Records
---
Amino acid sequence: MTEAPVPAGAIDYEVISLLSDLVRIESVNPSLAPSGSGEAAIAGFVADWAHRHGLATEWFGPPQRPSLLVTSFRGEPPDGAVLVLCGHLDTVGLGDQPDPLVPRIDGDRLVGRGAYDMKAGLAAALLACRTAAQLAAADEITGAVIVAAVADEEFASDGVQVVSERLVELGAAGAIVLEPTELAIGVAHKGFVWTRIDIDGVAAHGSRPHLGVDAVMQMGPVLVALGDLDRQLAERGHPLLGPGNLHASLVSGGTEESTIPAHCSLVVERRTLPGETVADVEADVEAVLDACRAADPRLVVTASTTLAREPMETPIDAPVANVLADAVTLASGREPQLAGMSYWADSGFLSAAGIPSVVFGPAGDGAHADHEWVSIASTVTCAEALSATVRAFCR
Ligand SMILES: [Zn+2]
């Protein structure tokens, strides 16, 4: 290993230099790690960078957890197509890696927290926005780029939710969410729904079972029926994403050894396919509970949705997918794979807001793990592909 700190300005590639600057700024999501600084400092850096390069900014969200739009235009958007490049500002906790905020070069790898997920994509997006401003000034394009630099993707995606309405208002015609994809183009991903199921039994002394109703025991048939539902889901799949699924995430109940438990609660996560709605998930859960109620008249059970995130599916012939695919081919010399992504991303919100969206970013490894790195060559290719996309899309 010949890891050495990256001296500021020592790298030829501007995108790598900008990426290194972004890695140096701690932006750990405080909802995940209470000591995290959040997005204020990194958003301030992005805004300064944008202003230095003649770009405009618009702020959203609370000052300590801000999101911002960086636009290649001032005032009203121009007539041509507006492309959104979306990158989150936050990272997960620093983990157990030495000097996670000191970007280091190791061969083709730039090592540091957030390098891969997803400061490399954010750096590439900012440069593409500047390219758009330059091309517009030279009358080579009539459209524009908006970088949505958003907070809180790693926890509740508050950032993308506060900017999506504004992006629609500004006429966004397509969006690229710059999560790492190893230069594949993600045209679909699952959504998810969290359901909390509560059973109310009756507490009693363990020696007097006739006076109690055991809520934990009653959860057994519910779990078995949910397992059956999961097996049914496995029978119908999506061509890019495979089947939907569910799992029992959290279970709790009971108070002490000799007391029949009066309460049991269960949290279930269902991963949904494009076309499956929250109402569909709720109906499936209700059918499971109805069957359990029919089998056990003493069962008192309720279910509620605690969080839902939309799936995404963008037709592969949508302009944003098409144009990006050509641009990646141009930049990398290889036709990119159009694929389903295994994870959920902010693209779920943008797509639900009516903006055709894809997920695209560089190669690397160690997202959310202890040794995070991004490929330098692939980050450069990502930046080149975004610039080529701007030329062809923003017309
Ligand atoms: Zn990410």
Note: Residues 88, 117-118, 153, 179 surround zinc ion (CB under 6 Å).
---
Amino acid sequence: MSSESDHKHNAACLELFAKLSEYLDQELEADTCEKIEQHLKECPPCRNCLQTLKRTVELCKAMGTKPVPSELSRRLRSMLEQLR
Ligand SMILES: [Zn+2]
């Protein structure tokens, strides 16, 4: 059965998502970044979400506002739920 590994994959994604905004701000240690990049290589849904997150952050920067981390993680979580 594959439900077990699906669940594990989701847990990895959620863990990654919690760090994505720090990753974009380059606030993470090098080996954490590597772990995220490794996951992104193997996980197209997460790559899509990162693209969306990047756009959101750039949009906020262009408008001179700071992205709110809790708002970003809410968006990311709802995106992940749609992938299930
Ligand atoms: Zn993932």
Note: Residues 3-83 form one domain.
---
Amino acid sequence: MFVFRVLASGSSGNAFVLRTDTATLLFEAGLRLPRLSKYLASEGIATSDLSAVLVSHEHRDHCVGAEELASEHGTPVIANEQVLRACGLAHLASVDAMPVGQTRRFGDIEVTSFPLEHDAIRHVGFFVRSQGRTLTIATDTGKATGDLRDAVSESDLVVIEANHDLHMLQTGPYPYHLRRRVGGPRGHLSNLQAGGIIVKHVKRPDVRVWLAHLSKENNTPLLALRTVRRVLQAEGMTLNVEVAQRDRPSLRWTGAPRPRQLSLLQHEGSVVA
Ligand SMILES: [Zn+2]
Ligand SMILES: [Zn+2]
């Protein structure tokens, strides 16, 4: 079994779940426990079944439910030390510090965290490998880091932030300082930036892209989709691009593992040889 599902993704709460035969991992605990449990149940998962929850950073939309999960269900909460402290979780019995860049194994799932650029203490994205499939979860970053580019180029599924439309952000309800923060290098990716990262770093036509963490005030699902598709079309790329719902379970992936291919480097090496 392999099922990856978006439970919610947006500025008001994020949670993704990956279930295999040997582990059930929650990525982000950005929903309060009653709603989180309800959404997990819609996928046939009891909250007490969670093997662990991995938290990327201390903003509420990523960690608000972590303490309840730990205290009511004993769920191991995993993040780097600075994030555990910033979330106020370091005192809990079931926390487990995972240094940035480390790979952890949970049953047949391997997770590696990598640094992103955001106005948080030590924010990370996640690169996941399981049963021959690879996926990246990267939200809350003002720009592409080298690690993000590498993760995207290795992934069968790319979950990437398309937070705002630039025009909506500039003309929308946010005050100047907030517009600067959101649109800045330690803020959030715009639709155009997300499209640019996909065009540059996705290497195969069968890669799926899910746009995530859309702003309620400064974006719409249709605008995000159109903008990213336009960027892809301008480069002659056709990919399966979808948009995650902000406030309810939406996209699900059970994708078949791809056959192992020679990497570009190996291929070039063999040509030279
Ligand atoms: Zn966020
Ligand atoms: Zn954030």
Note: The chain has a mean pLDDT of 93.
---
Amino acid sequence: MKDIDIQYFQKNLIDWYLNNHRSLPWRKTEDPYRIWVSEAMLQQTQVSTVLPYYRKFLQKFPTIKHLARAELHDVLKVWEGLGYYARARNLHRAAGNVQQQYQGVIPTTWNQFRKLPGVGDYIAAAVLSIAFGLPYAVVDGNVKRVLARLQCIAAPLNNSTSTKRFKETAEALKDTQMPGTYNQALMELGAIICKPKHPLCDRCPVQRFCLAYQTKTVAEYPKKKAARQTPQYHIAIGVVFKNGRVLITQRKPDGLLGGLWEFPGGKIKKGESAEAACVREIKEEVSLQVAVIDHLAQVKHAYTHFKITMEIFCCNYKSGRVKRNGPVAHRWIKLDEIDQYALPRANHKFLPKLKKWIEMVS
Ligand code: SF4
């Protein structure tokens, strides 16, 4: 830890925050449940994206008891489109645990709260400091970037071995009198002043404490580990029609997009046509023979760690009974019932085209 007047640093940061922070709904409440929901939603997701989801979620599940009693299906439906669905599944499971183990009262000790599903070091520190005023330092991507510049930390952000270094620095700088306000101030500084690409150093309340600014090396921090090339997958999807209904399947509850509904399909093998892959995948996944009748669309979608290109086919059911190999449930639904099911965002991208296609052929 390089030498700075920590109390003066904290005071400058907190004074700036109290006068300049964005007015956000989770900053107007002391309810630990609401703060927890906001922090879970804000992980990997921008504030503007979270705002409508936060309001909708709390309308539907205003207390932890409501969430604990809800069906996972309904929770995923409200979360639909926000991505990283493990957050919703964990929040739902954690609410159940709080209800059963702690009579609906969110625990205030690190060990108890940290053990709940989906609660990592970041969520634990954020909720315990903001809702209960406990002295834990938050370390998220914004905080790491600010710390890297403040202290000229050469450890790359996206490297697990550097996490210890950032945690130690965050601990050394934390405010034990106003930990919640201080943590929010540091995160807000990262979000609106010490931004990734063009930090607004001229407006920064802690400029005088910033080693990167003093040494004119702001552009060199934070360091990054060389990024790996993003894998790309080519996928064939089939919308299978049978007696005016379409087949949807539900993914396993865990893993990527766990618990969500989708049209069956999978990866196209090397040398295989997209159409052949669609027929094969449907046979493997649900044991149905289908005939492709049209290529509906090509849809590209980017996830955090990979990208996909989907070829969407309309298919007629030919024979067989659904036997699931992979999906945990299936339904034959009318397309106008699809809004009752939580689907991955990539599937939503071709739904308007599918609706038009159905109008055209019927
Ligand atoms: S002076 Fe610039 S680089 Fe340093 S903390 Fe402030 S905004 Fe970030």
Note: The chain has two domains: 6-220, 232-361.
